[in-house]
Structure formats: structure tokens, C-alpha cells
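input
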Amino acid sequence: MNDFKSKNLPVSDAHVVILINYVRRHHVIAYKELAKRVKRLTILVSTPMESDRSWTAEWDELDVRIQRNWMFTSKWKHPFGFEEPNFIHIPIDTPSQLKKLKPDIVFSYEFGMRTLFSAWYRRWNRNVPLVMVGNMSDHIERARGIGRRLLRRLLRANIDYFTYNGPSCKRYLQRVGIAEDRLFHVPYCFDRDKSYAGDKQFSTDGNKRLVYCGAISQRKGILQFAEAMKNWSKKYPDQDVHLSICGAGPLKDQVAACQINKFQINFLGNCDPDRLKSAYRGADICVFPTLADEWGLVPVEAMASGLPVLGSRYAQSVEDLLLEGQNGWSFAPKDRLETEAAIDGALRTGMAELQAMSRFARKSVEMITPERTANKFFKVIESVTKSPVQHNNSVATPAKSAIL
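output
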């Protein structure tokens, strides 16, 4: 029996197998909750950790197994002009691993090779439903190449059900022809150890203190944001603004060059959870100017810390959770005038209003828990394993403009 079992939870008699590239901390805390609700949970990973991550793999007591995997790196070129390494995993032993494990249901992350191999296993084991876990956004998927589009066209009819992590992901899946009755909502959770839970205090000296958490890279949009802040500070030279950056990356020197007399930047480097909590505690506003994030955990961590968020609409978490003027301000980071207008609105917000926004921000994310994510997985398991699988059915007709 699973050591995680709890007598107070409904438990499925299913052996659940999850396939994923690697396990992040927010996965671990959700999977530990899921393990309490199923007979057996096995997680197959392509690699313990990808090379561009600054943390080590921690799986706690979960049953995690490393697959035989071919990995190569390509350049992801986005229409917004940035490039980023893209790790392609080909876990070649997927069919044999699944044959040995004999799962009752398979969850495979993303529309790629691990799901293709899982679909191959599924064709010879038609009583085992295959669910693709969709952590993606419509904005990002528009930039995918012809190879991925063709693979997704092949896979679409060979997957039984799909999950989506937010509204943009759902739009994409519906746009490529996935019918409503094949979709389940399985949202992200986040690690509250990275959030500040104490009373939130704001600056009383008239200065504004901003915090940014993430890579100092092209995709994250921090250089464009720093340039916009520099322009704003030139217009309002009497306002002191301090930006703390938790993270590292190749654009550090270019971001540092944006400092002027009243706009100062403090580089904190990569931060462990305690330093992140301290950074959130000391800030008035969290900024998240990403050019492309399929979700974005930082805005959620910040809201849980009582921080209003000045965030990009190209982060799905901002689209899903941010309410304009109530827990933050949103903007399109490629639009310079809109970015500066959002900065102006945020920096002109008084302390009393910030305190009200802080309370609402925490309320906005109080439902985002590992238990909720596990319950959503459990709902999929119960719904799918208790009803016959209608394989290859319920494929909607995609829109003419759909990118498959």
C-alpha cells in the first residue's frame, strides 16, 4: 500500500502512470496529494533535471523512474524576436515501461514524442485510457514549427482525453479540434514555501519598491521593462523607484545599464525560498513582463505574498487571475506606450489602495492548493476509468485558421 494514503479521502483502485520531462517542485507537492487518492502512482521522467535549471531534483517519497531517453537541443525562435534553447526529449523505452507497469490510466505531458509513444502503447491496450496533460498557451503554440503541427495532427485522434491548465490552453485545444467532452481542467498549484505569509507592509517613504523573479533573459521581457522604467523615471525625476531582481541570466549587464539617478536596480542572484520570501516581503509590487509563459508561477507566489502584480498578458496566470485595478495591472510588453501607461498606473497607486489590493491578491489565490490539483486529477481518473473509452471519437472540426 502507498505510504501517502489517508483514511479521510476517497481512493481510486487505479494504478496511475504519469510521463513527464522532469518533475518540478509544484509537481511534487501535487503528486504527493494525488498519491493519497489512488492505489498506486508511478512517475516516468525523461531526465532528473534539465541543464538550464538552477535547482536539483527532489522527489521526496514518490515512485519516480528515469527513462532511457534521447535528448537534443534546438533553437526556439518566437515571432516576438527572442530565441531560447528548446530541449527535445525522446523517451524511447516508453512502450516497454508501460507494458511492464500495466497501468489503469496514463497521463502523458504535452503533444510530443512521449505522448506519441504512449499512444502507440494505447493502440495495443485499448482498455487503458490515455490523457494528454496540456500545459501550454495559445500565444506560445502559434510559434511552433511545421514538424510539431504535423505530429499533433497525427496524435489528436489517438488520445482519449486532454487536460488544460488555464483559459489560453483550452482555447488552443479547442482551436485544433478537441471537443468539449474530451477536456478536463487540471490547474497548476504552487509551493507556498516560496511565499511570504505574514502581515504585508508597504513603503511609507514615498518610494516604490518593485521585485522581479525569473531569468534575466530575452523571453522574460525584463530588459524591455527596465527600458520602459528608465523612460518613466526620466519623465518623473522626483520619484524614487527600486527594482530588486531575483535571478540570473545573460542580459544582466544590459538591464543594469538602464539605471538612472532615481531608478536603481539591485541584483540578488538566484534565490532560495527564504530569500524569495524576504524579497516579496520587502516589495510593494511584483513585476512579471514576460513575452511568453504558458503559465507563470511568480504572479501566483506574489499574490499569495500580498503583492499586487504588474504583469504581462502573455502569462496565462495573469490572464486567469489578475483583475485590473483590484489585484494588479496588466499590459502587452511589446507595446511600449501601453507598458509605460501600466507602469504609471501602478507607481501612482497610494498606500491605502495598495493595502486593499494586497488583501484581494491573497484572496485571489487562496484556492490554488496541491489538494485542489490532486482533486482535479482524481476527477479525471474517476470519470475516465468508470466509463468506456470512446477512442478516436468526439474530434471537433478545427477552425480554418487552426495551427495543428
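quick obs: The longest strand covers residues 12-20.
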